[in-house]
TrEMBL record:
GO molecular function term, any single one: tRNA binding
Stored PANTHER family: RIBOSOMAL PROTEIN S9, SMALL RIBOSOMAL SUBUNIT PROTEIN US9M
Biological process, per Gene Ontology: translation
KW Magnesium (keyword) present: no
Protein name from the UniProt record: Small ribosomal subunit protein uS9
Oligomeric and partner information: Part of the 30S ribosomal subunit. Contacts proteins S7 and S10.
Entry keyword Transmembrane: no
Region (Disordered): 99-128
InterPro entries (alphabetical): Ribosomal_Su5_D2-typ_SF (IPR020568), Ribosomal_uS9 (IPR000754), Ribosomal_uS9_bac/plastid (IPR023035), Ribosomal_uS9_CS (IPR020574), Ribsml_uS5_D2-typ_fold_subgr (IPR014721)
Coiled-coil stretches: none
SUPFAM superfamilies on file: Ribosomal protein S5 domain 2-like
UniProt keyword annotations, A-Z: Ribonucleoprotein, Ribosomal protein, RNA-binding, rRNA-binding, tRNA-binding
Length: 128
């Protein structure tokens, strides 16, 4: 079977995206796309790379995603789909790159330090 693979990461989420020729069905962790993300408004943006190259109804997407929250998972899926499309056809890179679909967002949560409330929040200063 012919399929194209892309890995997407964001925060602590990791998405594995498999694109197979089909009718546009998107499955995330065994559930339909809408069932998995519910009414999360941002979730629609995960499929933007497919719309950018007019491939919405050309591929079925089988996605496994783990770690993080729903928002990070959406962005991980977006990157994974874009990378899978480039593995399908390298010429699509020129359409996806300028729109920022192939850029990995490197921001991660900063670790908590001892003596602080959070990563940087110091205990309240008391003059007396």
């Amino acid at each position: 079977m012919e399929q194209y693979y892309g890995t997407g990461r964001r925060k602590t989420s990791v998405a594995r995206v498999f694109l197979r020729p089909g009718k546009g069905k998107v499955t995330v962790n065994g559930l339909e796309f809408q069932d998995y993300f519910g009414n999360l408004v941002k979730a629609v943006s995960a499929l933007e790379p497919l719309r950018a190259v007019d491939a919405t109804n050309r591929f079925d997407a089988y996605i496994t995603v783990e770690g993080g929250g729903k928002s990070g998972q959406v962005d991980a899926i977006k990157l994974g789909i874009a990378r899978a499309l480039v593995s399908y056809n390298a010429d699509l890179r020129s359409k996806l790159k300028p729109q920022g679909f192939l850029t990995r967002d490197p921001r991660e949560v900063e670790r908590k330090k001892y003596g602080k409330h959070k990563a940087r929040r110091a205990p309240q200063y008391s003059k007396r």
